[in-house]
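Example 4.3 (complexes with small molecules)
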Amino acid sequence: MTTVDVPVFIDRDAIHARVQALAAEIRRDLPSEDLHFVCVLKGAFMFLGDLIRELNGRVTIDFMALASYGAGKTSSGEVRLVKDLDKGLEGRDVVIVEDIVDTGLTLHYLQEILRARGPKSLRTACLLSKPSRRMIQVPVDYVGFTIEDRFVVGYGLDYAEQHRHLPYIGAL
Ligand code: IMP
Ligand code: MG
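Answer. The structure with inosinic acid bound is encoded below.
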C-alpha cells in the first residue's frame, strides 16, 4: 500500500458549514414539500449524505449514474446513462445533487431527461462549480463553492477512481 498526500483545498469544517447553509436554503425555498433528491453517482454520494442529514421534513432519495469522463481529467463531451432511477419523478419536487459542474455537458443532459419525466419542480444543487470551464450554460440553483480551474478530488470526487474517501476536498 502506498500513501498518497493530497493537499487540502477546502477543509472539512468549511464543507460542513457550507452544506448546512445549502440545506437551510433548500428548505427555505420548499418549506413544506416532500423533497426528492436525485444523487448523481458516484461523485455526489458524500455530499448527498451530509446534505440530507441537515434537512428536516420529508425526504426521499434515488440514484443514477452517468458517464462523461474516462479515466482522465478531460471531458469526452459524450454523456451516457449508466444506471437509471428506480422510481418516477412525476409530480415530485426534485433536487438533483451533483458533485461538480465543469463544462456543464453532464448536467445539461441530466436536466433535459429528468424534466421530460414531469416533476412538479426541478432544482439542482452542486457542491462545486468551475464557471471558467463552462461550454454550455446550465441553471444551478444551489452552489457550494465556486472555484477556479483546478482538478479537485476527495469528498466523493475522484481521479481515476482514487481519493473519493478523503473527508476534505483536495487539489491535485
Ligand atoms: P462536465 O460534464 O464537464 O460538467 O463534467 C461533470 C463531471 O466531470 C462531474 O460530475 C465530475 O464527475 C467530473 N469532473 C469535472 N471536474 C472534476 C474535478 O475537478 N475533479 C473530479 N471530477 C471532475
Ligand atoms: Mg459526476
